[in-house]
Every structure is written in structure tokens, then in C-alpha cells.
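Sequence, C-alpha cells reproduced for reference:
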Amino acid sequence: QVQLVESGGGLVQAGGSLRLSCAASGLTFSSSAMGWFRQAPGKEREFVAAITRNAGVTYYADFVKGRVTISRDNAKNTVNLQMNSLKPEDTAVYYCAGRRFAPSGTNWYQRANYDYWGQGTQVTVSS
């Protein structure tokens, strides 16, 4: 059974930083692309960042470019999201997502292209 468990969320002041982690189990992690999405109250879940299985390529939503870094450790089956210069509009539940054996050219910005999801971790940024 595949499990993705997020951690690292919390309350932070605007301008602060958080590091989210996602621990994967039951998944061939090194063969899986991983992503982060977020969902704010009353809004659709949206793409934040993704990283290919060998960490060769990363993708970022425009609204986080320059503030967020996605990374992975295939030896530890973890994917991380370092978030800096946080803004109140970054407040959301952040979800980890994974996809095994994806063909080249997969659009990592789309939710439908991920097979597995975590339960999410709340990030709240106060002004």
C-alpha cells in the first residue's frame, strides 16, 4: 500500500520560511516523479512544484518561482519543499503527490497525472 505522509507545516509570519517533507512508502520511489500541490479554502487544488525521478528536472508554478525549492532524497524516500519569503496568500493545505513510471513528456502541472496523494499539511502565514 502506497503512503505519502507530509510534515513540516505550521504557522509562520510573513517573510518567514518553512520546510515541508513527504515520506513515501510502498512506492518505487526512485522510479516516481513527485510533486507538491496546495489548496486554499474555497479554491481548487493547484500545482506548486514537481521533480522528476532522478531529480534531473524541476518545475515550479510562477507564483513560487524564486521562493521555493523542491528536492528529493531517493535513499530516504523523501521529497522536500523549502519555502522562503512566505506570504499570507501562501496559506493553504499542502499536498504531496507521486506518479510511477510516467512517460516522457508528462505534464507535471496537472493533478490528473499523479497516482498517489498524501493527506496534506497545513501552512498558515500571518501578516
